[in-house]
Amino acid sequence: MRCMTALDPTTRRLLTCGVVGPPLFIIAFLVEESLRPGYDLLRQTVSELAIGRYGWQQIANFLVYGVLLLLFAAGLRRATRSVVLPALVVLVAVALIVSGLFVTDPVHTDPTSWHGTVHNIAAIPVFLGVPLLCLVVAVSSLRRRNWGWTVYSTVTAVAMLATIQGLASEAYAGLFQRITIVLGWAWLNLLALRVRAGHLAPSVPRGGEEGCSGSGRVLTDERG
Description:
Layout: E1 2-5, H1 9-34, H2 55-80, H3 84-101, H4 114-143, H5 147-163, H6 173-196, E2 218-222
Antiparallel strand pairs: 1-2
Helix pairs in contact: 1-2, 1-6, 2-3, 3-4, 4-5, 4-6, 5-6
């Protein structure tokens, strides 16, 4: 079953943060790395843009994106009445904010500073949290026979978990991380667009609730 609801203006504005946040983050680091002399995007991670004189730009990028995801989580909660999805988005958002506050060390350095260690720990909820979000949505979509989102979410989760292993590569750690980021952030962007449009199929019911439980009036009810 595919459900659509009329969302109130506040909820739509909150969900818009999830639409804007992912591409804004990607555009920001693409611009930063293009203006950073000597920066090797194949080898160096996005987090390494936070190191040095102009590191404040990537730090701000982390913080802004984290705040936008927090607002998006609030919109998800209002639109879908889900508990699990917003909680996972909040986890990812807080981890991004921590990643911005604690600057990483250059990749493959030893030993790691205390703030680099905190940054690396914060990266775990980000790169595992988004695939987990994908799988939660995949299961929910499967129950609603929404095959498109079931397949897309599952493939995204598997692809992210596969490509993030590339961080172990000294020569291509940056490339693999960027692939992971683009995969996950694109999925988040499309999820936000879908929920903002009133499609509640990706939502996860609270408790044993089934059907269209989001805020607003049900407009359509169709198989898909």
